[in-house]
Amino acid sequence: EEDGLKSFAKSFETLLGQIAAKRELIQAESGVEEQGLAELERAMFSSRLWAKDPSLWKQDRDHQKLIKNSLGWLSSPEAMAASLGSIRGFVAEARAEFDETVVLGMGGSSLACEVFRCCFPAAPGHPKLSVLDTTDPASVLALRRRLDLKRTLFVVSSKSGSTIEPHAFMEYFWAEAEKALGAGKAGRHFVAITDPGSTLESVARKRGFRKTFLNAPDIGGRFSVLSYFGLVPAGLMGVDLEKLLSSARRAARDCSPEHATSESLALRLGAALGRHAVLGRDKLTLSLSPAVEALGLWIEQLVAESTGKEGKGILPVFAEPLGAPADYVGDRFFVRVELPGSPDRDAAERLAALERAGHPVFTLPMSDPYELGAQFFIWEVAVAAACQLLGVNPFDQPDVQAAKDQTKSLLGSLEKGVLPRESPAFRAGGWAAFGDPALEKLFPGRPDRPLADALAAQLARLKPADYLAVLAFVDPSEDNARALFQLQKTLRKLTRSAVVVQFGPRYLHSTGQLFKGGGDNGVFVLLVEAETTGEPGVPGQSYGFGTLLRAQARGDFAALRERGRRALRLELGAAGSQPMQALVNAAAALSEKCPS
Prior knowledge:
The protein has 23 helices and 16 strands. Strands 12-10-11-16-15-13-14 form a seven-stranded mixed sheet, with helices on both faces. Helix 19 crosses helix 23. The chain is an alpha/beta fold. The radius of gyration is 25 Å and the shape is globular.
C-alpha cells in the first residue's frame, strides 16, 4: 500500500509539472499574433514593403541588390490587368486549333498551373490543361501515348530557360512533334514563357515558336503565379483572368499602407507564421477545403523555399490527415483555408478540438474559387512578413544549387549512358540501402536485414520537434500516391512527428531548399525507382529520363549527406512488383509492435 501511495504521489507530481509547463506555454503563446504585428509595425513593414525597401530583410549590399530585383510581384495584379488583351487574343487562336495544353515546367513554373488545373474545370471549348513536372520515364511515356500531337499545344515554362527538366521535356516533345507533324511544322505547337534574354527566348526564336511571353524579370519563380507563368495556362483552360486579378487587387489594397497593420489579413497571417516559428511552432500544418486542396502544393514551395535558410525555416505540412490533440507535440501551427461551398465537417470539428487544447489555428475564408487570386497575394505578403520576423531573405534559394551540382557531376560521369555503379552500405529486404555515416555504422558488413529494421533504425533517430520527410523518386501514379498517403498516416501515428511525403524531382524546386538550408531537424527517407528498360531518351544527351531521375535522387542524397543530414536511401530494384506496398507493410508491422 505504501509503495502504491509513493507511486501515485510520483505520478501526481509529474502530472502537476506537465500542467505547469502547459500553462507556461499557453502564457508564452498568448498574444503571439499581436506580438508579431507589433514587430511589423515597429519595422514600418507595410510602407517599406510597398516602397520596395530591401533593407527590410538584409543590410548587406549583395542581398539588397537581389531583393530589390525581386519585388515585381507586388504590382502584378495591376500590371497584368493591362496585359490581358494579349493573353485573350492568344487564347482565341489556341482554342481554334488545340484540344489540349501541356505545361512543361518545374517549381514556380508548374505548381501554379497545377492549382488552376485542379481547382477550375476546363471551360467548354477550351483546351484541357495538363502539367508535366516529373522526369519519371513511365509518366513521360504515358503522357506521350495519350496525346494527339496534331491537337496539342506545349507551353515551355522556365524563368531562366536553362533548368534541366523543362529543357529535357522540350527536347523530347519537340522531337516527337517533328516526327508526327513533319519537319518545320512543330514550332506552331510550342509557346515559351520566360524572362527577357534567357536561353529559352533564343531557342524559341530560332525554332519559330508560335509565341513567346516575356515575363517581368523582377518576379521570382515562386512569386510568379499572377504573372504570365500562371495566367497564360489559366487563360488557355478558360479561367476568367479579370475576375481572378480583381480578387488579387482587393487583397493588395487590404495590406497597403493605407490600412492599419492589424486590419490586414495577410499581415496577421505573416505575424502569426513568423512569431510561432520563432517560438518553436515551425510546422505549418495546412487544412484546405477539398475544392481548393491543390493550393497546398503552391503554398508548400512558397513557404519552404522562402523561409528555409540560414538554419531557420518553416516546414509546410500538406495532405497529412488531421489528428486528435494528443497526436501532436507543441510544434504545430494550423492554417485552415475554408471555402463554404466545399464543406468538411470532420476537419472543422478536429480543428475546434485542437484549438481548445491550446494549438493555434488561423482561418482564411474564401467565398468562391476565384478568391484564389486573393489567396495568392495574401500568402506572398504573409511569407515576406514572416521572413522579416525570422531575419532571412525570402527571395533567394542558396542551397537549391547543391543538388543540381551533384546531379550535373553524376551525369558528366556516365559510362555509355549508365550511372557509375555503387556498392550498397547494406541491404534491406533485398533492396540496396545507403545512409549517412552514423546510420551505416548500425549495419556493418552489408547484411541483408528486414526492411522494417532499416526503417526502425531511421525512425529511432527522430527527436522531439523533428520531422520526417519521405522523398519518392517514383512514378507519381494514383496507386503510388495512395500507398504513400497510407505510409504517411502510419508513420505519423507511429512517431507523432510531422510527416511529409513528396515526389522527386518536384520537391527539389520546392521544399528541397528547406531540407538542406533550414535547421537540422529533419530525418529523410529517399525512395528511388528501379532501373527499367526502354526508357525514353533525352534528345541531344547520352541518357534517358530514368537515368536523369536516378541521378537527381543520388545527387540530392549526396547534398543531404554533405550537410550532415540524417538520410536513408533505398533503391527499389529488387523489391518485386509492389515496392510501395512493401514499405507500407513494413511501417504497419512497426506500428503493431509499438502501438503507443
